[in-house]
Amino acid sequence: MSCQPSDPLQRQVAELLVVRASGHLDDQHRRYPQWELSNGDLQRLLNAGVGGVILLGGSAVELQQRTRKLQSWSDQQLLLCADVEEGVGQRFDGASWLVPPLALGRLHQIDPEQAITLAERYGYCTADQARRCGLNWVLGPVCDVNNNPANPVINVRAWGEEPTTAGALAAAFQRGLARGGVLGCAKHFPGHGDTASDSHLNLPVLPHSRERLEQVEFPPFRAAIAAGVDSVMTAHLLLPQLDPQQPATLSSVVLSDLLRGALGFNGLVVTDALVMEAITARHGPADAAVLAFEAGADLILMPADADAAISGISQAIAQGRIPIQRLHAALRRRREALARVQPSSPGLPLPTPAERELEQRLVTASLEQSFTAPIPPGEGINLIRIDAAWPCPALNGAAPALHLPQQHGFRSVVIHGQGVSPWQDDPEAPLALERLGDGPVLLQLFLRGNPFRGERDRQEPWRAAVQQLQRLDRLAGLIVYGSPYLWSELRSVLAPSIAAAFSPGQMPEAQRQLLSSLLQHPSDSLQSRDFTD
Amino acid sequence: MSCQPSDPLQRQVAELLVVRASGHLDDQHRRYPQWELSNGDLQRLLNAGVGGVILLGGSAVELQQRTRKLQSWSDQQLLLCADVEEGVGQRFDGASWLVPPLALGRLHQIDPEQAITLAERYGYCTADQARRCGLNWVLGPVCDVNNNPANPVINVRAWGEEPTTAGALAAAFQRGLARGGVLGCAKHFPGHGDTASDSHLNLPVLPHSRERLEQVEFPPFRAAIAAGVDSVMTAHLLLPQLDPQQPATLSSVVLSDLLRGALGFNGLVVTDALVMEAITARHGPADAAVLAFEAGADLILMPADADAAISGISQAIAQGRIPIQRLHAALRRRREALARVQPSSPGLPLPTPAERELEQRLVTASLEQSFTAPIPPGEGINLIRIDAAWPCPALNGAAPALHLPQQHGFRSVVIHGQGVSPWQDDPEAPLALERLGDGPVLLQLFLRGNPFRGERDRQEPWRAAVQQLQRLDRLAGLIVYGSPYLWSELRSVLAPSIAAAFSPGQMPEAQRQLLSSLLQHPSDSLQSRDFTD
């Protein structure tokens, strides 16, 4: 059932929705057609007053045209946002893809001043590129404290492992966003760092008391609010000590009493995506939106059914279940936020030289290396484990992780969740080496503990595999790109002579920097002849 | 050593060069930085009078901006070309990726009229999208007759396996290009279809006499010339019966006596890329360009060193080795060709509904299927072999080849040249099935015999693997995407009850059409929950 654009109440309610679209201009290129509305539906909903769009996928250059097109389908200024926590290039090809925030959290332990300066530049770079793409709202900073290494969903997305660091850097990032002229969003309130299950897939429970939340979870949110963050995103988490009935997203205790009351936040409260299993498993699409709005959310992100959400909230207001003042307050906050954004910039969204320099500096500042001698050239195996295969941003284009070892004589063998298994049933010798071939092995692990993969990647016996290769004197080197926890674990069993390195970032620049240093005298003369026909 | 833009002769010679650039706006995104000039070099060379650019890579939307930028660096109208033999989407994401020409060659055996109509629409669609991207020269039609199935470089790129079909369809494609307002290019003269080695890697020898060439190789070129093709590209082939010294690209016998004389071609003669090993192994960069121009080429494509090519040709003219009239004639042909192109179109380069319909119709017209019952749902293995992994256009986005079998219960295992080997050393049972898991196997082979891979893919024992799976009663189905020769070979050992199908095209549309038909009752309810954070 479609909402009724002629109904003035429904039109106002529609302003509060943020619906999901692909960054591609063309319906055919949607990567997730089940989540991403078609252009026909988008046009209809924007025409009916829907006030926001969250975008994902495609190139930054295409996104620039895409946001113009979307805006042309609406008669009001839209909120145009994306989950570009790690730079616009994290989601849109061609823009800057920056090291994960936790890289600066680690730097902050050693050099807090530099870390804060870089976090502020990180925010400004993201904001300025977002604005060049036509976005006006960055869904960051993550304000969760990653004090649980087993956390499958936050992990390196957090700015710190303890509250002070996370708060200082999240606030710096937010200052950068504000200077860059776009809105920010502190997430995921009241704190998603200490969960061991994934709220995309089910409803995690956080058993903490209000006192503990004040100590660990709240400080980064308070810091971001003090820095003027424009919006706060709710978490799909159950906190039985605060509200035994409803997850934070649907809880007036959490949103109204805590966030508005105790933390004094006056900006926009936005739900996390309502299409997530944690919500849809328990509530219908209208019900979920009504409960969130009733609890204190201003904006409804990715409702499972936009028409149902509009009708449901309108009905709840019309029937007096939710006072009309809530609607007016939410609309006012939305207007006030939009008044703060700078107009989108006509420049290309591709990195400027200064932004390139920042990308490189962030990589350099976050690397760790430990070896006595570089890896000599010769025949060997370049064994790569990637998080996901298609697409695989880390191996896009002329990835140094493939090309530099190949120029060195090492044949690439790439392992991923959809490939032939390299494992055999022997806990002491888990790698089936006869499937890989002979020679020394350079191991490059691109593993960061992404959402949706849950614990699957962690169950691979990389520790035993490293020990197996060392025992056979076949481990030429080890690089971990992503998880600092995996890096610590593997380094603990590594002989000091083995060339080893870590980068929190997986981007080509990190690969280039580490491999240039780990591989002895990279030969410039051996180049691929592959230039296509 | 840089060429001298102030020298009037060098400036005129520079017009004849076509240098290579990435389709990406940004230097950092070049996929082949060793072949693709940097923006700094491009600007310098275009400023020095270089008259053409060949582009590869990036998205169609980005290409539109890229061609404008390149044109802005020059004070003359540029030739802007690309190897978009199979639609602009073959090289630039987002535009139409069409079935390989040989698909229509096969259709021509059954329904010549429909094949010719479709080939003309194929050319028009390619031309119109090229023009919307700012290109004005399509490097097609391929006029080679693929009468040698072992040909590693032409294969499904040809319009036919015999001269009449190849000529009729190449001419139809050229008519489409002309109607679409861009230049075409018949290639690779005098005919590359009957070679069993790859001219990218070495110099193939074609032992044929002039009479035989007249019978088999020349007819498609004659047909394209009769259809008004604007340019002809030379082949890096040695034809000892015609010229025992020089390959066609550098042979005045082939270019002047045969192409200009016997075939009466008055348009532009362009070399194939001079950076190919077949040329660079024998000649320095200046030498190769001088020899090609001396032999009769008008345009020098991808010289190994643009400055050296300009200086070398200028010197040969200045010293009287090459008459200045040759230069004037080449410049005149270039001007005349450019006068025929229509201005670039402001529309988006993404497919229109009519172009979508053509994409689908070409797929539908080229499928083959043979089965008695569809594949029932259940646990099984979706074993996919791809030509190349990163990038892999066939598995981009929400590839039906992955997603439809997964929804059916089949777990994907993707094999590629850079993965863990699925093979074991047993000629009768070559697939190491314990590495793949249990259950029936749906085999999807994306193999078309690409260049650069030489015979490597063909050496995989797929015939024995199919027999092995059949013997074990584990072959649920077989789909070949690409090579009709592999399909014939495998079908010859296939039990008639096995669900099997073939598509010359590898695009998602072909996957969707075939799998929708081969898989029983695809369930719409099982959808991936993966919508990213």
TrEMBL record, chains A, B:
**Catalytic reactions of this protein:** Hydrolysis of terminal non-reducing N-acetyl-D-hexosamine residues in N-acetyl-beta-D-hexosaminides
This protein's record includes keyword Ribosomal protein? no
Q: Which GO terms describe its molecular function?
A: beta-N-acetylhexosaminidase activity
Record-linked SUPFAM superfamilies: (Trans)glycosidases
* Family to which the UniProt record says this protein belongs: Belongs to the glycosyl hydrolase 3 family.
Instruction: Name a biological process GO annotation.
Output: carbohydrate metabolic process
Out of the domains of life, which is the source?
A: Bacteria
Residues in domain Glycoside hydrolase family 3 N-terminal? 12-333
What is the organism field in this record?
Parasynechococcus marenigrum (strain WH8102)
The Bacterial Glycosyl hydrolase family 3 C-terminal domain covers 379-520
Q: InterPro entries under this entry?
A: Bac_GH3_C (IPR041518), GH (IPR017853), Glyco_hydro_3_N (IPR001764), Glyco_hydro_3_N_sf (IPR036962), NagZ_Beta-hexosaminidase (IPR050226)
Q: Which residues form the signal peptide?
A: none
Gene3D superfamilies for this protein: Glycoside hydrolase, family 3, N-terminal domain, Glycosyl hydrolase family 3
Q: Which Pfam families match?
A: Bac_GH3_C, Glyco_hydro_3
EC class, as a word, reads hydrolase
Q: Does the keyword Ion transport apply?
A: no
**Protein name in the entry:** beta-N-acetylhexosaminidase
- As recorded in UniProt, its EC number(s) are 3.2.1.52
- Alphabetized UniProt keyword annotations: Glycosidase, Hydrolase
